[in-house]
Design brief:
The complex is a heterodimer of chains A (149) and B (141). Helices cover 61% and strands 0% of the residues of chain A. By secondary structure, chain A is mainly α. Chain A is globular and about 50 Å long. The two termini of chain A are 23 Å apart. Chain B is an all-alpha fold and 141 residues long. Chain B has six helices and no strands. The chains are: A mainly alpha (149), B mainly alpha (141). Chains A and B meet through helix 1, helix 2, helix 3, helix 4 and helix 5 of A and helix 1, helix 2, helix 3, helix 4 and helix 5 of B.
Protein backbone atom coordinates (compact mmCIF):
# COMPACT_ATOMS: atom_id res chain seq x y z
CA UNK A 1 0.00 0.00 0.00
CA UNK A 2 2.73 2.48 0.96
CA UNK A 3 4.62 1.49 -2.18
CA UNK A 4 1.62 2.51 -4.26
CA UNK A 5 1.24 5.78 -2.41
CA UNK A 6 4.87 6.70 -2.99
CA UNK A 7 4.63 5.59 -6.63
CA UNK A 8 1.69 7.98 -6.95
CA UNK A 9 3.63 10.71 -5.14
CA UNK A 10 6.79 10.31 -7.21
CA UNK A 11 4.73 10.13 -10.40
CA UNK A 12 2.88 13.30 -9.43
CA UNK A 13 6.02 15.30 -8.70
CA UNK A 14 7.50 13.95 -11.93
CA UNK A 15 4.40 14.96 -13.89
CA UNK A 16 4.35 18.41 -12.30
CA UNK A 17 8.00 18.87 -13.31
CA UNK A 18 7.27 17.77 -16.87
CA UNK A 19 4.33 20.16 -17.17
CA UNK A 20 6.17 23.10 -15.59
CA UNK A 21 9.21 22.60 -17.81
CA UNK A 22 6.99 22.24 -20.91
CA UNK A 23 8.36 18.82 -21.82
CA UNK A 24 4.65 18.18 -22.40
CA UNK A 25 4.68 20.69 -25.26
CA UNK A 26 5.88 19.01 -28.48
CA UNK A 27 6.46 22.37 -30.19
CA UNK A 28 8.83 23.34 -27.37
CA UNK A 29 10.67 20.01 -27.54
CA UNK A 30 11.06 20.29 -31.31
CA UNK A 31 12.26 23.90 -30.96
CA UNK A 32 14.99 22.55 -28.67
CA UNK A 33 15.89 19.81 -31.14
CA UNK A 34 15.86 22.25 -34.08
CA UNK A 35 19.37 23.57 -33.62
CA UNK A 36 19.58 25.21 -37.06
CA UNK A 37 16.10 26.77 -36.87
CA UNK A 38 14.64 29.07 -34.20
CA UNK A 39 16.54 27.24 -31.49
CA UNK A 40 15.12 27.28 -27.97
CA UNK A 41 17.74 25.89 -25.57
CA UNK A 42 15.39 25.77 -22.56
CA UNK A 43 15.24 22.00 -22.37
CA UNK A 44 18.94 21.76 -21.64
CA UNK A 45 17.99 23.24 -18.29
CA UNK A 46 15.37 20.55 -17.72
CA UNK A 47 17.81 17.73 -18.19
CA UNK A 48 20.52 19.67 -16.37
CA UNK A 49 18.31 20.32 -13.35
CA UNK A 50 17.06 16.75 -13.23
CA UNK A 51 20.48 15.15 -13.62
CA UNK A 52 22.22 17.41 -11.07
CA UNK A 53 19.55 16.86 -8.42
CA UNK A 54 19.42 13.10 -8.95
CA UNK A 55 23.22 12.80 -9.23
CA UNK A 56 23.71 14.10 -5.69
CA UNK A 57 20.55 12.54 -4.26
CA UNK A 58 21.37 9.09 -5.66
CA UNK A 59 24.83 9.23 -4.10
CA UNK A 60 23.35 9.78 -0.67
CA UNK A 61 20.48 7.33 -1.16
CA UNK A 62 22.63 4.48 -2.43
CA UNK A 63 24.72 4.56 0.75
CA UNK A 64 21.71 3.03 2.46
CA UNK A 65 21.71 -0.75 2.69
CA UNK A 66 18.16 -0.84 1.31
CA UNK A 67 15.27 1.42 0.29
CA UNK A 68 12.70 2.36 2.91
CA UNK A 69 9.85 0.18 1.62
CA UNK A 70 11.50 -2.72 -0.21
CA UNK A 71 14.24 -5.25 0.61
CA UNK A 72 16.75 -4.01 -1.94
CA UNK A 73 17.54 -1.55 -4.70
CA UNK A 74 16.68 -2.74 -8.21
CA UNK A 75 19.39 -1.30 -10.40
CA UNK A 76 20.57 -2.15 -13.91
CA UNK A 77 23.31 -4.72 -14.16
CA UNK A 78 24.13 -4.56 -17.87
CA UNK A 79 27.40 -2.95 -18.84
CA UNK A 80 27.82 -3.73 -22.54
CA UNK A 81 27.18 -1.16 -25.21
CA UNK A 82 25.58 -3.50 -27.72
CA UNK A 83 23.70 -3.26 -31.00
CA UNK A 84 20.34 -3.24 -29.24
CA UNK A 85 21.24 -0.22 -27.12
CA UNK A 86 22.52 1.70 -30.13
CA UNK A 87 19.79 0.68 -32.58
CA UNK A 88 16.93 1.05 -30.10
CA UNK A 89 18.10 4.48 -28.98
CA UNK A 90 18.48 5.62 -32.60
CA UNK A 91 14.94 4.45 -33.38
CA UNK A 92 13.62 6.21 -30.28
CA UNK A 93 15.44 9.39 -31.30
CA UNK A 94 13.69 9.35 -34.68
CA UNK A 95 10.29 8.88 -33.01
CA UNK A 96 10.99 11.61 -30.46
CA UNK A 97 12.05 14.04 -33.16
CA UNK A 98 9.05 13.33 -35.37
CA UNK A 99 6.37 13.74 -32.72
CA UNK A 100 8.14 15.84 -30.09
CA UNK A 101 6.98 13.42 -27.41
CA UNK A 102 8.97 11.01 -25.27
CA UNK A 103 7.17 8.48 -23.03
CA UNK A 104 6.84 10.40 -19.73
CA UNK A 105 5.60 13.69 -21.17
CA UNK A 106 3.30 11.87 -23.61
CA UNK A 107 1.54 10.16 -20.71
CA UNK A 108 1.50 13.31 -18.58
CA UNK A 109 -0.01 15.30 -21.40
CA UNK A 110 -3.03 13.00 -21.51
CA UNK A 111 -4.22 15.38 -18.79
CA UNK A 112 -4.63 18.12 -21.39
CA UNK A 113 -7.22 16.01 -23.18
CA UNK A 114 -5.89 16.57 -26.71
CA UNK A 115 -6.38 13.75 -29.20
CA UNK A 116 -2.77 14.03 -30.35
CA UNK A 117 -1.31 12.69 -27.11
CA UNK A 118 -3.90 9.88 -26.92
CA UNK A 119 -3.01 8.78 -30.43
CA UNK A 120 0.72 8.97 -29.68
CA UNK A 121 0.38 6.98 -26.45
CA UNK A 122 -1.74 4.33 -28.20
CA UNK A 123 0.91 3.96 -30.91
CA UNK A 124 3.67 3.87 -28.29
CA UNK A 125 1.90 1.10 -26.38
CA UNK A 126 1.52 -0.80 -29.67
CA UNK A 127 5.26 -0.32 -30.09
CA UNK A 128 5.90 -1.81 -26.63
CA UNK A 129 3.86 -4.87 -27.65
CA UNK A 130 5.61 -5.21 -30.98
CA UNK A 131 9.06 -4.99 -29.38
CA UNK A 132 8.06 -7.57 -26.81
CA UNK A 133 6.71 -10.01 -29.42
CA UNK A 134 9.63 -9.56 -31.80
CA UNK A 135 12.26 -10.07 -29.14
CA UNK A 136 10.25 -12.78 -27.35
CA UNK A 137 11.12 -11.73 -23.86
CA UNK A 138 14.84 -11.31 -24.47
CA UNK A 139 14.66 -7.60 -23.77
CA UNK A 140 16.97 -6.53 -21.01
CA UNK A 141 16.20 -3.22 -19.50
CA UNK A 142 18.51 -0.65 -18.04
CA UNK A 143 16.06 -0.36 -15.22
CA UNK A 144 17.09 -3.93 -14.31
CA UNK A 145 15.08 -6.87 -15.56
CA UNK A 146 11.94 -6.07 -13.70
CA UNK A 147 12.58 -2.50 -12.73
CA UNK A 148 12.23 0.77 -14.49
CA UNK A 149 14.03 1.91 -17.56
CA UNK B 1 14.89 32.84 -28.70
CA UNK B 2 11.77 34.70 -27.57
CA UNK B 3 10.41 31.50 -26.06
CA UNK B 4 13.49 30.84 -23.92
CA UNK B 5 12.26 29.79 -20.46
CA UNK B 6 15.32 28.79 -18.42
CA UNK B 7 13.78 29.32 -14.97
CA UNK B 8 10.69 27.13 -15.36
CA UNK B 9 12.83 24.60 -17.24
CA UNK B 10 15.35 24.41 -14.41
CA UNK B 11 12.68 24.23 -11.70
CA UNK B 12 10.75 21.58 -13.63
CA UNK B 13 13.93 19.62 -14.15
CA UNK B 14 14.75 19.84 -10.45
CA UNK B 15 11.28 18.50 -9.63
CA UNK B 16 11.92 15.55 -11.94
CA UNK B 17 15.16 14.91 -10.05
CA UNK B 18 13.33 15.11 -6.72
CA UNK B 19 10.74 12.62 -8.00
CA UNK B 20 13.46 10.21 -9.15
CA UNK B 21 15.19 10.50 -5.76
CA UNK B 22 11.94 9.96 -3.86
CA UNK B 23 11.16 6.88 -5.91
CA UNK B 24 14.63 5.40 -5.43
CA UNK B 25 14.81 5.96 -1.68
CA UNK B 26 11.28 4.75 -0.98
CA UNK B 27 10.58 2.08 -3.63
CA UNK B 28 14.15 1.20 -4.59
CA UNK B 29 13.57 1.67 -8.29
CA UNK B 30 14.69 4.04 -11.01
CA UNK B 31 11.99 6.30 -12.38
CA UNK B 32 12.27 5.25 -16.02
CA UNK B 33 8.88 5.80 -17.59
CA UNK B 34 9.17 3.53 -20.64
CA UNK B 35 10.19 0.59 -18.43
CA UNK B 36 7.50 1.25 -15.84
CA UNK B 37 4.75 1.57 -18.43
CA UNK B 38 5.79 -1.11 -20.92
CA UNK B 39 5.63 -3.82 -18.27
CA UNK B 40 1.92 -3.21 -18.01
CA UNK B 41 1.60 -4.70 -21.51
CA UNK B 42 0.96 -7.46 -20.73
CA UNK B 43 0.57 -6.98 -16.97
CA UNK B 44 2.49 -9.34 -14.70
CA UNK B 45 0.66 -10.68 -11.67
CA UNK B 46 1.51 -8.86 -8.45
CA UNK B 47 3.62 -6.28 -10.27
CA UNK B 48 0.98 -3.99 -11.67
CA UNK B 49 -0.52 -1.75 -9.00
CA UNK B 50 2.47 0.48 -8.28
CA UNK B 51 2.98 0.97 -12.04
CA UNK B 52 -0.61 2.16 -12.44
CA UNK B 53 -0.21 4.49 -9.47
CA UNK B 54 2.96 5.96 -10.99
CA UNK B 55 1.22 6.49 -14.33
CA UNK B 56 -1.76 8.04 -12.54
CA UNK B 57 0.68 10.34 -10.77
CA UNK B 58 2.18 11.54 -14.05
CA UNK B 59 -1.27 12.60 -15.20
CA UNK B 60 -2.26 13.97 -11.78
CA UNK B 61 0.88 16.14 -11.63
CA UNK B 62 -0.01 17.73 -14.95
CA UNK B 63 -3.59 18.28 -13.79
CA UNK B 64 -2.21 20.06 -10.73
CA UNK B 65 -0.09 22.25 -12.99
CA UNK B 66 -3.16 23.06 -15.08
CA UNK B 67 -5.01 24.10 -11.93
CA UNK B 68 -2.32 26.31 -10.39
CA UNK B 69 0.36 27.00 -13.01
CA UNK B 70 0.78 29.54 -15.76
CA UNK B 71 -0.90 28.20 -18.90
CA UNK B 72 1.07 27.94 -22.12
CA UNK B 73 0.12 27.18 -25.67
CA UNK B 74 0.73 23.60 -26.67
CA UNK B 75 1.78 23.01 -30.24
CA UNK B 76 1.62 19.75 -32.17
CA UNK B 77 3.27 19.42 -35.50
CA UNK B 78 2.53 16.97 -38.24
CA UNK B 79 -0.75 15.14 -38.64
CA UNK B 80 -1.89 11.79 -37.34
CA UNK B 81 0.51 9.72 -39.48
CA UNK B 82 3.49 11.50 -37.89
CA UNK B 83 2.09 10.88 -34.40
CA UNK B 84 1.47 7.20 -35.16
CA UNK B 85 4.93 6.64 -36.63
CA UNK B 86 6.55 8.66 -33.84
CA UNK B 87 4.68 6.68 -31.20
CA UNK B 88 5.52 3.33 -32.74
CA UNK B 89 9.22 4.15 -33.07
CA UNK B 90 9.28 5.51 -29.53
CA UNK B 91 7.65 2.37 -28.13
CA UNK B 92 9.81 -0.07 -30.07
CA UNK B 93 13.02 1.92 -29.71
CA UNK B 94 12.80 2.49 -25.96
CA UNK B 95 12.15 -1.22 -25.34
CA UNK B 96 15.00 -2.41 -27.53
CA UNK B 97 17.30 0.31 -26.23
CA UNK B 98 16.32 -0.33 -22.60
CA UNK B 99 15.15 3.14 -21.68
CA UNK B 100 14.04 6.61 -22.65
CA UNK B 101 14.69 10.21 -21.67
CA UNK B 102 13.93 9.48 -18.01
CA UNK B 103 15.59 6.07 -17.55
CA UNK B 104 18.71 6.74 -19.61
CA UNK B 105 18.66 10.54 -19.85
CA UNK B 106 18.04 11.35 -16.19
CA UNK B 107 18.51 8.31 -13.94
CA UNK B 108 21.22 6.62 -16.00
CA UNK B 109 23.17 9.84 -16.52
CA UNK B 110 22.92 10.56 -12.79
CA UNK B 111 24.46 7.13 -12.15
CA UNK B 112 27.17 7.86 -14.73
CA UNK B 113 26.22 4.67 -16.56
CA UNK B 114 28.22 4.39 -19.78
CA UNK B 115 25.27 2.60 -21.42
CA UNK B 116 22.92 5.43 -20.53
CA UNK B 117 25.34 8.18 -21.54
CA UNK B 118 25.77 6.42 -24.91
CA UNK B 119 22.02 5.92 -25.34
CA UNK B 120 21.29 9.55 -24.46
CA UNK B 121 23.88 10.87 -26.91
CA UNK B 122 22.44 8.65 -29.65
CA UNK B 123 18.79 9.53 -29.16
CA UNK B 124 19.54 13.26 -28.87
CA UNK B 125 21.59 13.24 -32.07
CA UNK B 126 19.03 11.17 -33.98
CA UNK B 127 16.19 13.36 -32.72
CA UNK B 128 18.08 16.47 -33.87
CA UNK B 129 18.79 14.99 -37.30
CA UNK B 130 15.16 13.88 -37.60
CA UNK B 131 13.81 17.35 -36.82
CA UNK B 132 16.26 18.87 -39.29
CA UNK B 133 15.26 16.49 -42.09
CA UNK B 134 11.53 16.42 -41.33
CA UNK B 135 11.23 20.19 -40.88
CA UNK B 136 13.79 21.77 -43.18
CA UNK B 137 14.26 19.17 -45.92
CA UNK B 138 11.01 17.23 -46.26
CA UNK B 139 8.73 19.73 -44.52
CA UNK B 140 6.37 17.33 -42.76
CA UNK B 141 6.56 18.67 -39.18
Amino acid sequence: MLKNIFALGAGSVFGLGLALSQMTNPAKVQAFLDVVGAWDPSLIFVMGGAVVVSFFAFRVILRRPAPVLTPGFLLPTMKDIDKRLVGGSALFGIGWGLAGFCPGPAISSLAFGHWQSYLFVAAMVAGFWIARIVSQGTIESDGAQEAAA
Amino acid sequence: MENFTPVSALLGGALIGVAAAMFLVMNGRLAGVSGIVSRLFPPAKGDTDWRLFFVGGLILGTLVYQAVGTPYEIGYSGGWPILVIGGLWTGIGTRIGGGCTSGHGVCGMARMSSRSITATAIFMVFAGITVFLARHVVGVI
